[in-house]
Specification:
By secondary structure, the protein is mainly alpha-helical. The chain has a domain of 128 residues. The protein contains 16 helices and five strands. It has a three-stranded antiparallel beta sheet. A hairpin with a 5-residue loop joins strand 4 and strand 5. Helix 3 runs antiparallel to helix 8, helix 5 packs across helix 6 and helix 6 crosses helix 7. The longest helix has 25 residues.
Length: 300
Protein backbone atom coordinates (compact mmCIF):
# COMPACT_ATOMS: atom_id res chain seq x y z
CA UNK A 1 0.00 0.00 0.00
CA UNK A 2 1.57 3.29 -1.05
CA UNK A 3 1.30 6.54 0.86
CA UNK A 4 -0.92 8.08 -1.81
CA UNK A 5 -3.20 5.02 -1.90
CA UNK A 6 -3.67 5.07 1.86
CA UNK A 7 -4.86 8.64 2.36
CA UNK A 8 -8.32 10.08 1.74
CA UNK A 9 -8.51 12.19 -1.41
CA UNK A 10 -8.41 15.97 -1.22
CA UNK A 11 -11.87 16.00 -2.82
CA UNK A 12 -13.24 13.80 -0.02
CA UNK A 13 -11.58 16.04 2.58
CA UNK A 14 -13.11 19.15 0.99
CA UNK A 15 -16.55 17.52 0.85
CA UNK A 16 -16.44 16.62 4.53
CA UNK A 17 -15.31 20.13 5.48
CA UNK A 18 -18.37 21.40 3.63
CA UNK A 19 -20.74 19.42 5.85
CA UNK A 20 -22.93 21.84 7.85
CA UNK A 21 -22.02 20.08 11.11
CA UNK A 22 -18.27 19.89 10.48
CA UNK A 23 -17.36 22.78 12.79
CA UNK A 24 -19.31 21.12 15.61
CA UNK A 25 -17.55 17.78 15.03
CA UNK A 26 -14.13 19.45 14.78
CA UNK A 27 -14.55 21.48 17.96
CA UNK A 28 -15.80 18.46 19.94
CA UNK A 29 -12.99 16.23 18.66
CA UNK A 30 -10.30 18.79 19.51
CA UNK A 31 -11.80 19.36 22.96
CA UNK A 32 -11.59 15.62 23.58
CA UNK A 33 -8.04 15.31 22.24
CA UNK A 34 -6.77 18.25 24.28
CA UNK A 35 -8.48 16.85 27.36
CA UNK A 36 -6.82 13.45 26.94
CA UNK A 37 -3.33 14.79 26.25
CA UNK A 38 -0.83 13.36 28.75
CA UNK A 39 1.69 16.08 29.54
CA UNK A 40 4.85 14.41 30.83
CA UNK A 41 8.37 15.84 30.68
CA UNK A 42 9.96 12.39 30.80
CA UNK A 43 7.92 11.15 27.85
CA UNK A 44 8.60 14.43 26.05
CA UNK A 45 12.32 13.76 26.45
CA UNK A 46 11.95 10.26 25.00
CA UNK A 47 9.63 10.78 22.05
CA UNK A 48 7.73 13.34 20.05
CA UNK A 49 3.95 13.49 20.28
CA UNK A 50 3.61 11.73 16.92
CA UNK A 51 5.89 8.89 17.98
CA UNK A 52 4.06 8.49 21.28
CA UNK A 53 0.69 8.40 19.52
CA UNK A 54 1.83 5.72 17.07
CA UNK A 55 3.99 3.66 19.41
CA UNK A 56 1.23 1.56 20.96
CA UNK A 57 -0.45 1.11 17.58
CA UNK A 58 2.83 -0.32 16.32
CA UNK A 59 2.88 -2.67 19.30
CA UNK A 60 -0.70 -3.81 18.67
CA UNK A 61 0.14 -4.29 14.99
CA UNK A 62 2.86 -6.77 16.00
CA UNK A 63 0.65 -8.34 18.68
CA UNK A 64 -2.09 -9.23 16.20
CA UNK A 65 0.33 -10.06 13.40
CA UNK A 66 1.64 -13.29 14.91
CA UNK A 67 4.66 -15.06 13.46
CA UNK A 68 4.33 -18.07 11.19
CA UNK A 69 5.09 -20.47 14.01
CA UNK A 70 2.19 -19.12 16.03
CA UNK A 71 4.36 -17.32 18.58
CA UNK A 72 3.37 -13.84 19.73
CA UNK A 73 4.60 -11.29 17.20
CA UNK A 74 5.16 -8.58 19.81
CA UNK A 75 8.65 -8.95 21.20
CA UNK A 76 11.16 -6.37 22.34
CA UNK A 77 13.37 -7.16 19.35
CA UNK A 78 10.54 -7.02 16.82
CA UNK A 79 9.33 -3.72 18.26
CA UNK A 80 12.83 -2.22 17.99
CA UNK A 81 13.10 -3.37 14.39
CA UNK A 82 9.72 -1.93 13.45
CA UNK A 83 10.35 1.42 15.15
CA UNK A 84 13.60 1.82 13.21
CA UNK A 85 12.04 0.60 9.95
CA UNK A 86 9.21 3.18 10.03
CA UNK A 87 11.50 5.86 11.52
CA UNK A 88 9.45 6.18 14.68
CA UNK A 89 12.36 6.20 17.13
CA UNK A 90 15.74 4.63 17.84
CA UNK A 91 16.16 1.14 19.28
CA UNK A 92 17.28 2.58 22.63
CA UNK A 93 14.30 4.90 22.95
CA UNK A 94 11.99 2.06 21.98
CA UNK A 95 13.32 -0.14 24.78
CA UNK A 96 13.08 2.72 27.27
CA UNK A 97 9.47 3.42 26.27
CA UNK A 98 8.55 -0.26 26.56
CA UNK A 99 10.07 -0.36 30.04
CA UNK A 100 8.03 2.68 31.10
CA UNK A 101 4.84 1.22 29.66
CA UNK A 102 5.42 -2.12 31.34
CA UNK A 103 5.93 -0.31 34.65
CA UNK A 104 2.63 1.49 34.02
CA UNK A 105 0.85 -1.84 33.49
CA UNK A 106 0.18 -1.39 29.76
CA UNK A 107 2.23 -4.41 28.67
CA UNK A 108 3.08 -7.65 30.43
CA UNK A 109 5.55 -10.43 29.78
CA UNK A 110 4.03 -13.41 27.98
CA UNK A 111 4.86 -16.99 29.03
CA UNK A 112 7.57 -18.34 26.78
CA UNK A 113 9.94 -21.32 26.94
CA UNK A 114 12.51 -19.76 24.62
CA UNK A 115 14.65 -17.42 26.71
CA UNK A 116 16.05 -15.83 23.56
CA UNK A 117 12.68 -14.22 22.84
CA UNK A 118 11.04 -11.61 25.02
CA UNK A 119 7.36 -11.69 24.03
CA UNK A 120 4.98 -9.13 25.44
CA UNK A 121 1.19 -8.89 25.51
CA UNK A 122 -0.96 -5.76 25.78
CA UNK A 123 -3.05 -5.60 28.94
CA UNK A 124 -6.69 -4.67 29.33
CA UNK A 125 -5.46 -1.33 30.69
CA UNK A 126 -3.91 -0.55 27.30
CA UNK A 127 -7.05 -1.56 25.42
CA UNK A 128 -9.15 0.60 27.74
CA UNK A 129 -6.86 3.53 27.01
CA UNK A 130 -7.26 3.00 23.28
CA UNK A 131 -11.03 2.66 23.50
CA UNK A 132 -11.07 6.01 25.32
CA UNK A 133 -8.98 7.61 22.57
CA UNK A 134 -10.94 6.04 19.71
CA UNK A 135 -14.17 7.20 21.35
CA UNK A 136 -12.77 10.73 21.52
CA UNK A 137 -12.68 10.72 17.70
CA UNK A 138 -15.61 8.48 16.78
CA UNK A 139 -18.20 10.20 18.98
CA UNK A 140 -17.71 13.64 17.37
CA UNK A 141 -17.76 11.99 13.95
CA UNK A 142 -21.44 11.14 14.43
CA UNK A 143 -22.22 14.75 13.47
CA UNK A 144 -20.86 14.22 9.96
CA UNK A 145 -20.85 10.42 9.54
CA UNK A 146 -23.90 8.96 11.34
CA UNK A 147 -22.62 5.37 11.14
CA UNK A 148 -19.94 6.31 13.65
CA UNK A 149 -22.56 5.52 16.31
CA UNK A 150 -22.53 1.84 15.35
CA UNK A 151 -18.72 1.79 15.24
CA UNK A 152 -18.66 3.17 18.76
CA UNK A 153 -20.88 0.32 19.90
CA UNK A 154 -18.46 -2.16 18.27
CA UNK A 155 -15.47 -1.10 20.39
CA UNK A 156 -16.39 -3.80 22.91
CA UNK A 157 -16.28 -6.49 20.20
CA UNK A 158 -12.80 -8.15 20.20
CA UNK A 159 -13.11 -9.14 16.53
CA UNK A 160 -13.93 -5.58 15.50
CA UNK A 161 -11.10 -4.17 17.63
CA UNK A 162 -8.59 -6.56 16.10
CA UNK A 163 -9.64 -5.69 12.54
CA UNK A 164 -9.82 -1.98 13.38
CA UNK A 165 -6.33 -1.98 14.91
CA UNK A 166 -4.87 -3.73 11.88
CA UNK A 167 -6.59 -1.35 9.46
CA UNK A 168 -5.35 1.68 11.39
CA UNK A 169 -1.83 0.33 11.79
CA UNK A 170 -1.30 -0.99 8.27
CA UNK A 171 -1.80 2.48 6.86
CA UNK A 172 0.69 4.31 9.03
CA UNK A 173 3.22 1.46 8.75
CA UNK A 174 2.87 1.88 4.96
CA UNK A 175 3.75 5.56 5.32
CA UNK A 176 0.48 7.43 5.66
CA UNK A 177 0.86 10.95 7.06
CA UNK A 178 -2.22 12.58 8.58
CA UNK A 179 -0.90 15.96 7.44
CA UNK A 180 -0.72 14.92 3.77
CA UNK A 181 -3.30 17.61 2.93
CA UNK A 182 -1.98 20.03 5.56
CA UNK A 183 1.74 20.40 4.78
CA UNK A 184 2.01 23.61 6.82
CA UNK A 185 1.55 21.46 9.94
CA UNK A 186 4.40 19.11 9.05
CA UNK A 187 6.96 20.94 11.18
CA UNK A 188 4.70 20.82 14.26
CA UNK A 189 3.70 17.14 14.47
CA UNK A 190 7.13 15.93 15.53
CA UNK A 191 7.64 18.59 18.22
CA UNK A 192 6.55 18.28 21.82
CA UNK A 193 3.00 19.62 22.12
CA UNK A 194 3.44 21.30 18.73
CA UNK A 195 0.15 20.36 17.13
CA UNK A 196 -1.76 20.10 20.40
CA UNK A 197 -0.97 23.75 21.23
CA UNK A 198 -2.28 24.89 17.85
CA UNK A 199 -5.42 22.80 18.31
CA UNK A 200 -5.92 24.14 21.82
CA UNK A 201 -5.72 27.72 20.56
CA UNK A 202 -7.98 26.97 17.59
CA UNK A 203 -10.87 25.78 19.76
CA UNK A 204 -10.60 28.64 22.25
CA UNK A 205 -12.91 30.94 20.32
CA UNK A 206 -16.68 31.39 20.86
CA UNK A 207 -18.75 28.23 20.54
CA UNK A 208 -20.97 29.80 17.87
CA UNK A 209 -17.99 30.89 15.75
CA UNK A 210 -15.78 28.96 13.33
CA UNK A 211 -13.71 26.14 14.76
CA UNK A 212 -10.34 27.80 14.17
CA UNK A 213 -11.00 31.15 15.80
CA UNK A 214 -10.50 33.94 13.25
CA UNK A 215 -11.34 36.64 15.80
CA UNK A 216 -8.66 37.48 18.40
CA UNK A 217 -8.80 35.29 21.50
CA UNK A 218 -6.80 35.50 24.72
CA UNK A 219 -3.31 34.01 24.70
CA UNK A 220 -1.27 33.06 27.78
CA UNK A 221 2.24 31.73 27.17
CA UNK A 222 2.59 30.72 30.83
CA UNK A 223 -0.71 28.82 30.83
CA UNK A 224 0.18 26.89 27.67
CA UNK A 225 3.65 26.02 28.96
CA UNK A 226 2.25 24.79 32.26
CA UNK A 227 -0.65 22.86 30.75
CA UNK A 228 1.48 20.97 28.23
CA UNK A 229 4.67 20.57 30.32
CA UNK A 230 6.95 22.53 28.01
CA UNK A 231 9.01 25.67 28.50
CA UNK A 232 7.85 29.21 27.76
CA UNK A 233 10.63 29.42 25.18
CA UNK A 234 9.27 26.31 23.47
CA UNK A 235 5.77 27.83 23.24
CA UNK A 236 7.14 31.14 21.95
CA UNK A 237 9.18 29.35 19.29
CA UNK A 238 6.12 27.39 18.16
CA UNK A 239 4.05 30.57 17.89
CA UNK A 240 6.76 32.45 16.03
CA UNK A 241 7.13 29.58 13.56
CA UNK A 242 3.35 29.48 13.10
CA UNK A 243 3.35 33.22 12.40
CA UNK A 244 6.16 32.89 9.87
CA UNK A 245 4.19 30.20 8.05
CA UNK A 246 1.09 32.41 7.99
CA UNK A 247 -0.99 30.09 10.17
CA UNK A 248 -1.88 32.71 12.77
CA UNK A 249 -1.18 36.23 13.92
CA UNK A 250 -0.53 37.57 17.40
CA UNK A 251 -1.69 40.95 18.63
CA UNK A 252 -3.36 42.77 21.49
CA UNK A 253 -2.02 45.40 23.89
CA UNK A 254 0.58 43.02 25.35
CA UNK A 255 0.84 40.59 22.41
CA UNK A 256 -1.60 38.47 24.40
CA UNK A 257 -4.11 37.66 21.68
CA UNK A 258 -4.04 35.24 18.78
CA UNK A 259 -6.19 34.77 15.67
CA UNK A 260 -5.97 32.15 12.95
CA UNK A 261 -5.45 33.20 9.36
CA UNK A 262 -7.12 31.39 6.40
CA UNK A 263 -4.06 29.14 5.73
CA UNK A 264 -4.07 28.09 9.40
CA UNK A 265 -7.75 27.31 9.39
CA UNK A 266 -7.44 25.36 6.12
CA UNK A 267 -4.52 23.33 7.48
CA UNK A 268 -6.22 22.41 10.76
CA UNK A 269 -9.54 21.57 9.12
CA UNK A 270 -7.84 19.47 6.42
CA UNK A 271 -5.98 17.61 9.15
CA UNK A 272 -9.17 16.88 11.12
CA UNK A 273 -11.20 15.93 8.04
CA UNK A 274 -8.40 13.57 6.96
CA UNK A 275 -8.42 12.00 10.42
CA UNK A 276 -12.21 11.54 10.37
CA UNK A 277 -12.08 9.88 6.94
CA UNK A 278 -9.13 7.70 7.98
CA UNK A 279 -11.10 6.43 10.99
CA UNK A 280 -14.20 5.94 8.81
CA UNK A 281 -12.32 3.91 6.22
CA UNK A 282 -10.69 1.73 8.88
CA UNK A 283 -13.96 1.18 10.73
CA UNK A 284 -15.67 0.35 7.45
CA UNK A 285 -12.97 -2.21 6.73
CA UNK A 286 -13.38 -3.71 10.21
CA UNK A 287 -17.17 -3.89 9.92
CA UNK A 288 -17.95 -4.22 6.19
CA UNK A 289 -21.64 -4.82 6.85
CA UNK A 290 -21.87 -1.28 8.23
CA UNK A 291 -20.09 0.43 5.34
CA UNK A 292 -20.79 4.13 4.94
CA UNK A 293 -17.94 5.75 3.02
CA UNK A 294 -16.90 3.92 -0.17
CA UNK A 295 -13.22 3.06 -0.03
CA UNK A 296 -12.74 4.28 -3.61
CA UNK A 297 -13.99 7.72 -2.65
CA UNK A 298 -11.55 7.94 0.22
CA UNK A 299 -8.57 6.78 -1.79
CA UNK A 300 -9.42 9.21 -4.60
Amino acid sequence: MSDQASIPSLAAVAALRGHPQFDIAARESVRNVVGLYRADRLLNALMSDRARALFTHAALYLHYGRTRDGEPGLTVGAMKDLCVEIELCSRGRCEAMLALMRAAGLFAAAPNLDRRRRPLVPTEKLFALHRERWTAHLRPMRHVIPEAVSWLASLDDPDFVRAFVMALSERFVAGMRMVAHAPLLESFIDRNAGLIILLSLAQSGPADGPFAATAPTELSINALASKFSVSRKHVLTLLRDAEELGLLVRGGPANNEVAFLPPGRDALENFLATMFLYFAECAEQAAPAKAVVPAAALAG
